[in-house]
Amino acid sequence: MGSGQWIMEKRSSLRNDSFSRDNDNVPETGCLSIIVLGASGDLAKKKTFPALFNLYRQGFLQSNEVHIFGYARTKISDDELRNRIRGYLINDKSAPGQSEQVSEFLQLIKYVSGSYDTEEGFQLLDKEISAHESSKNSLEGSSRRLFYFALPPSVYPSVSRMIKKCCMNRSDLGGWTRIVVEKPFGKDLDSSEKLSAQIGELFEEPQIYRIDHYLGKELVQNLLVLRFANRMFLPLWNRDNIDNVQIVFREDFGTEGRGGYFDEYGIIRDIIQNHLLQVLCLVAMEKPVSLKPEHIRDEKVKVLQSVLPIKDEEVVLGQYDGYRDDPTVPDHSNTPTFATAVLRIHNERWEGVPFILKAGKALNSRKAEIRVQFKDVPGDIFKCKKQGRNEFVIRLQPSEAMYMKLTVKQPGLEMSTAQSELDLSYRQRYQGVTIPEAYERLILDTIRGDQQHFVRRDELKAAWEIFTPLLHRIDDGEMKPLPYKPGSRGPAEADELLSKVGYVQTHGYIWIPPTL
Ligand code: NDP
Ligand code: BG6
Fold first, then answer.
1. Which atom of ligand 2 is nearest to the CA of 438?
2. Residue 396 main-chain phi, psi, to 5 deg
3. I want to staple 481 with a disulfide (CB 3.0 to 4.6 A). Which of 48, 71, 313, 336 is the partner?
4. CB atoms within 10 A of CB 473
């Protein structure tokens, strides 16, 4: 099979398999313009352009219909922008034709320089987009404009106004305009609601894609399938069987180079209020009526609305030694770089089960995982408690895996028990399968008009309602982070809290990821 044919088949099979599409009336053909605002920045070069390149090389963006525009204040030429991003595009030099693909892709990019709050730059941008649309002889329904905000949220309102005013006048062509906005979306409930209202005045909810890249991760996307397509999980997934759930994010490096940004936000706004809370929703929600995006998001909102206020005694904050040495961080910063918080869901399924959300920078390892710990076996004739409880672990990254910790008979003549596991390690089980980057998947969703993996306005509001009181107490200095050593597990008090709320650590057992 020729590579062109393979790509066409792959495109069509991915479209057909996409069980979540809700928007079949949206035009999917014709001229597509992707505009990366903040094109000179870190996110654009590290994530947005590489994701676009990956979509291009797999045939999801066709050079005869797509054009990519970079926009920022920095005065650089098209070639200077191309040279900045070239090194970040995944390019397997050993594969034939790869460097040509990079060059072809870069030729699709044009750079426009302008400010974020005056019409001049956006008028110029509109002129360039329109010229592209005219050159492709766009027919009715074929002006598709996707604006990606790789920008600080402070400029979202003015940029939205400029787009609305200067870049949405081609109603003669029909088609659509969508915006993709990044986190942090606000700093607390009020600021987030204000931002939502400002953007909501200009764009309809189906045009707004609030991206949380954790929703694009392979094993996060697997959660619904796992929970609702497997009979064996249905009767187990509740307070009768599950003792506690941990959702953990650890990084083994500090805020390097992002201290200024980070200090304004802290670990709760950076990771917990969005990434980990989104994962919690998928772990805890009820079965949706269908896989339509609105049905799924309705269930996520219900979980968030059932979360009880967080108690101060169920929070441990930390700040790693040396964090304040960063010249962009104030000497007396109270910003946590580590936090453990226990969330309690007040509903029939989860009453009494602690959901422990934990995230930290500069820790001893880099990983993200969900750890579901089951209750002890009643009437345990084998004294299994000594071996540890059953756990179901979903390793989001690195080395994607799911494994279930079980007690089994130790092989041999003796009747003794040991902890072992049923292991589904992706690298081993799905050899040769490339797992797409989260951003790649989510940008493709925006082009297709699928909002399932994006955060709805009411969902965002409910998420801020949970954390805003705690965040205000930290901002006011009423709660202080405990110091911890870089490269450690974080403050010892966090582990104490974990055992206080019921987590029982299994000793003498380590899961070793398979090496392949
Ligand atoms: P940057 O700080 O690099 O900002 C992006 C661009 O915005 C800059 O190149 C700059 O372009 C412009 N800009 C910067 N500061 C201002 C300002 N005060 N006023 C107006 N324009 C400004 O951000 P990132 O690229 O790191 O991130 C973009 C967004 O994505 C942020 O909201 C961030 O939190 C979020 N994000 C980032 C991730 C990452 O890995 N970096 C991961 C997940 C989310 P110019 O001056 O040329 O106009
Ligand atoms: C971003 C945070 O949203 O997620 C960063 O702002 C963090 O602080 C990053 O490093 C982690 O993403 P990932 O995909 O590497 O887990």
1. 14
2. -75, -40
3. 336
4. 14
pLDDT of residue 141 exceeding 70: no
Q: Which residue has the higher pLDDT, 444 or 142?
A: 444
Distances (CA, A) of 292 to 24, 78, 274, 382, 450: 12, 40, 22, 46, 9
Q: Measure the CA–CA gap between 56 and 260, rounded to whole angstroms.
A: 34
Q: Is the pLDDT of residue 98 over 90?
A: no
Question: What is the mean pLDDT of the segment spanning 105-109?
Answer: 96
Does residue 288 have a cis bond before it (omega within 30 degrees)?
no
Sheet holding 176-181, edge to edge: 109-113, 66-72, 31-37, 143-149, 176-181, 208-210
At residue 92, what are phi and psi to the nearest 5 degrees? -85, 95
**What tokens does 71 get?**
């926009």
Ligand 2 atom nearest the C-alpha of 258 is: 8
Say yes or no: CB of residue 41 within 6 Å of ligand 1: yes
Please say whether the beta carbons of 479 and 317 come within 8 A.
Answer: yes
Residue 245 in contact with residue 349, Cβ under 8 Å? no
DSSP 351: T
Tabulate helix, strand, coil % of the chain (nearest 5): 40, 20, 40
Our answer to whether residue 275 is catalytic in this structure is yes
Q: Supply the pLDDT for residue 184.
A: 87
Could you give the C-alpha distances from 102 to 57, 96, 224, 251, 385, in angstroms and in order? Answer: 8, 12, 36, 31, 56
Write down all domains in the chain, each with its CATH number in brackets: 3-182 (3.40.50.720), 216-377+392-403+428-436+456-500 (3.30.360.10)
By three-state DSSP, how is residue 184 classified?
coil
- Pocket of ligand 2 contains residue 437 by CB under 6 Å: no
What SS3 state is found at 18? coil
- Ligand 2 atom 5: the closest Cα is on which residue? 270
Closest atom of ligand 1 to 42 CA is 25
CA-based nearest residue to 115, from 56, 78, 73: 73
- Distance between CA 366 and CA 381 in Å, rounded? 38
Residue 316 has phi, psi (to 5 degrees) of -125, 130
In contact, 188 and 468? CB cutoff 8 Å: yes
pTM flag (> 0.85): yes
Sign for the CA dihedral angle at 324, 325, 328, 331 comes to positive
List the catalytic residue out of 275, 295, 332, 507. Answer: 275
174 touches 27 (CB < 8 A): yes
Cβ-based neighbours of 236, under 8 Å, separated by 6 or more: 242, 374
Taking only the tens place, the pLDDT of each residue in 44-88 is: 999 999 999 999 999 999 888 899 999 999 999 999 999 999 999
Tokens of 171: 């109603």
Interstrand relation of 176-181 and 315-320 (parallel, antiparallel or unpaired): unpaired
**Distant-in-sequence, close-in-space partners of 360: CB < 8 Å, separation ≥ 6:** 249, 250, 251, 267, 318, 337, 338, 339, 490
